[in-house]
Amino acid sequence: MSESEFQPTERTQVKRLPKRGHYDRETVYGILDSAFVCHVGFSVGGQPYVIPTNYGRTEDTIYVHGSAASRMLKTLSGGVPVCVTVTHVDGLVLARSAFHHSVNYRSVVILGTARLVEQPAEKMEALRLFTEHVMKGRWDDVRQPTEQELKATTVLAIPLEEVSAKVRTGGPVDEEVDYSLPVWAGVLPLETVAKEPVPDAMRKNDPPLPDYLKNHLR
Amino acid sequence: MSESEFQPTERTQVKRLPKRGHYDRETVYGILDSAFVCHVGFSVGGQPYVIPTNYGRTEDTIYVHGSAASRMLKTLSGGVPVCVTVTHVDGLVLARSAFHHSVNYRSVVILGTARLVEQPAEKMEALRLFTEHVMKGRWDDVRQPTEQELKATTVLAIPLEEVSAKVRTGGPVDEEVDYSLPVWAGVLPLETVAKEPVPDAMRKNDPPLPDYLKNHLR
After folding, report:
1. What are B131-156's pLDDT values in tens digits?
2. Which is deepest, A53, B2, B20, B192, by most CB within 10 Å?
3. What ranges do the domains of chain A cover?
4. Three-state DSSP string of A45-87
5. Separation in Å, CA B41 to CA A39, A173, B49
6. Which residues, numbered 55 to 84 in chain A, qualify as contacts with chain B under a Cβ-Cβ cut-off of 8 Å?
7. CA–CA distance, B31 with B25 (Å, rounded to integer)
8. Do residues A107 and B52 make contact, with C-beta atoms less than 8 angstroms apart?
9. Is residue A17 very low, low, confident or very high in pLDDT (cuts 50, 70, 90)?
10. Which chain A residue has the Cα nearest residue B105?
């Protein structure tokens, strides 16, 4: 196990279809850094909740944040077990049998416990990460958080320790006898694309579209 | 409360930013029917897990399915509390302050308990739903499940009872004093699009691209 690999545990080892399991940092970082919405799982009174939210990553830490008033943030600040999942859907896999239809995807599952970020400098740095994670170059362009805004925001750090990735790529895998069926089979690739930016109707002194946004569109 | 509304409960009522909460079937069905990947949350030994999977809907039931060997399916078959979340990310909301950056999204959160579908006819109908949910017209074109394939598949039904939707649309909402800042503000719309279909390299008797796939691309 090289240093660039996460150590699989009983809970993160992909058991069924083990070839889809990946534990190397390159794969995990790649999936985390090319999305910005994760699904956070936690339990309250025995009921699991799954809530979509933004995140940012630096090294082996991801940060999530939100209003200090949010139930999710309040619950997770209490140090309960959490699961953070990030998923890219890359395509529909259309097989010759209904049974072998599948989806090409890349996902990361992070298990752990969140740590409340209290130190203002780390909190500010996490907020910079969120902004830069969504759009590189944006942070230096916008008004940065005031002390009051910092206080109104809860930031949580979740260590990348118990982590696994799952990846499916490629075409359909059909039963041998089905390959001769007269059915179109293959992959329909899916991609998330940015469309033409919509300027704020309330604009007063807004400059033209900044370069970092133009670059983002490429 | 009309019949076309789900009754919000203590657990599904959107308390913070209540204007984003929706409980009407039209909104909930619309979000569920225009996605095909959900994130399923469940706990094992106090640890929450969030796993992406496919689903289908008919009336007030959603179905999820998978290998009978999967931990998720085995756990949920035991009648434990589950949360199913479906999220569309519609755009980045770029405000003049870092604090007011946001995301336009539509999400549905379903709380409940899964029921194992054992009756073969309902199971087959659920499999038809999955296939048709992903691509309308596909089911009649492909080889349908054998008895053995049906046995190897676990299908779970989750009732739409405790359900809420959250929707954010529109441009940034900045602090009054920030509107005059020289910062480009607005929305970067995001959309998931299908690219050119990739025929299976193993094709033998595959016909040309079927009409339902061409229609899907429009």
Report:
1. 999 899 999 999 999 999 999 999 99
2. A53
3. 18-190
4. CCEEEEEEEEEEEECCEEEEEEECCCHHHHHHHCCCEEEEEEE
5. 9, 28, 6
6. 67, 69-71, 81-84
7. 10
8. yes
9. confident
10. A52
Residue B68 neighbours by CB under 8 Å, 6+ apart: B74, B151, B152, B153, B154
What does the block give as tokens for A170?
A: 């490629």
Inter-chain residue contact A40 with B54, CB threshold 8 Å: no
Summarised one tens digit per residue, pLDDT across range B32-52 is 999 999 999 999 999 999 999
Task: Compare all CA atoms of chain B with the CA of A212 and give the residue at the minimum distance.
Answer: B184
Confidence label for A218 from pLDDT (cuts 50, 70 and 90) = low
Q: Phi and psi (nearest 5°) for B75?
A: -65, -50
Instruction: Taking the CA atoms of B98, B99, B103 and B104 in sequence, report the sign of the dihedral they define.
Output: negative
Which class does domain A18-190 fall in?
Answer: mainly beta
CB contact under 8 A, A193 and B190: yes
Single-letter amino acid, residue A189:
P
Give percent of chain B with pLDDT exceeding 90.
83
From A192, which residue of chain B is nearest by alpha-carbon distance? Answer: B192
Residue showing tokens 């969504």: A134
User: A54 is written with which tokens?
Assistant: 């933004």
Fold of B18-217: Pnp Oxidase; Chain A (2.30.110)
Interface test with B, best of A94, A129, A204 (most B CBs within 10 A): A94
3-class DSSP state of A184: coil
A122 reaches B (C-beta below 8 A): no
User: Which residues are within 8 A (CB) of A179 and not within 5 positions of it... i.e. 6 or more apart?
Assistant: A96, B202, B203, B204
- For residues B26 and B2, the answer to whether their CB atoms sit within 8 Å is no
